[in-house]
Amino acid sequence: MGRAPCCEKVGLKKGRWTAEEDETLAKYIQTNGEGSWRSLPKNAGLLRCGKSCRLRWINYLRADLKRGNISAEEENTIVKLHASFGNRWSLIASHLPGRTDNEIKNYWNSHLSRKIYSFPGASAGIMDTPKVASIPPKLKGGRTSRWAMNKNKTYTQNVNDAINQRPKQTFTQPNSDFTVLDADVADVNEPRIEELEAEVNKCDRSVDESNDEDILGLCQMEGISDILESWLPETTCVVWDLSEEIDNNDMVVRVSDACRDKMASSGEGYSCSSSMALDQHWDWESVIEFNNVVESEACNNWEQQEKPLTWPWEDDAWESQSKNLGETDTQMQNDMVDWFLS
DNA sequence: AACAACTCCAACCGCGAAGTC
DNA sequence: TGACTTCGCGGTTGGAGTTGT
After folding, report:
1. Is any atom of nucleic acid chain C found less than 7 Å from the CB of residue A43?
2. What are the boundaries of the signal sequence (predicted)?
3. Same domain, A275 and A150
4. Structure confidence by residue, pLDDT tens digits, A65-79
């Protein structure tokens, strides 16, 4: 038996809503409230599918909707949230009062994605590292730095120098232009932590109550990045972005591939990365990368962590970790695939 | 002025999750 | 427990409006 249709489609109207239909729907919902979408059209006297009524109400008729163009601030927020959440439009919309998921999705598809993909080289599917970037590179499957997406942001000279010193790189898709580096601020014996935290505290912050997630607003990314650059002097890294997740003392920053490569090739300190217990709820945002510069308590506890996963790019890691766990490489990889598909 | 190409966005569609019986 | 319903989400489409030639 196939799926039952959401409503009896015979004789129902499709296409654009008329002003009369809008008025009928709005009056009915104001009187009877939202919900029962299936029976709503019949009760309200509308020749529309319940689904269509729901969509019309949510996307157009609701009183709390914000009219007018997306502001620059909202645009930045969308870019930032999209970098974190991907195409989870309803989740993004929940951070933009008065905006609907459909509106944001349309705006992204018609404005922002084109703007981002218009970066030289992106259209060919091959991304050369920008020498000077007023628009950051966007890679499919990758993440775009919010800081880098700031319209008025221009990279400082030392950043450009660092970029220029990097060998020309070719990225193929899928790839990620940023690595997530996660450090426990409280555990880092670093004199500039207070300064960094002060910068962070300048940011507008909000809490997504649905999952108790702390979202950083748009602010002071330049100052934070400057601090972080000086914080990691030995790597001569370019710190691209301080990410939006700040939860208690956990801080997530992103560093460029060149930085990660530098860490990996240094042969010093930790080379392990991306650990997480399988039985914990987590997402890729919270992946951890350790290195010889930023050491955290979590890093020290690496050996004690249960069923850690590692990024596939670390060829040796699969084998060593699976041995530690008494699993085969294939089992571990299957674990990850299962999780990823779940 | 006419046509083509493009943009934008409202609306549709199919699917999966959650709820109900 | 399973069949069915309802709801919500994200991808896609259609067409009105705009811009270019």
Report:
1. no
2. none
3. no
4. 887 788 888 887 887
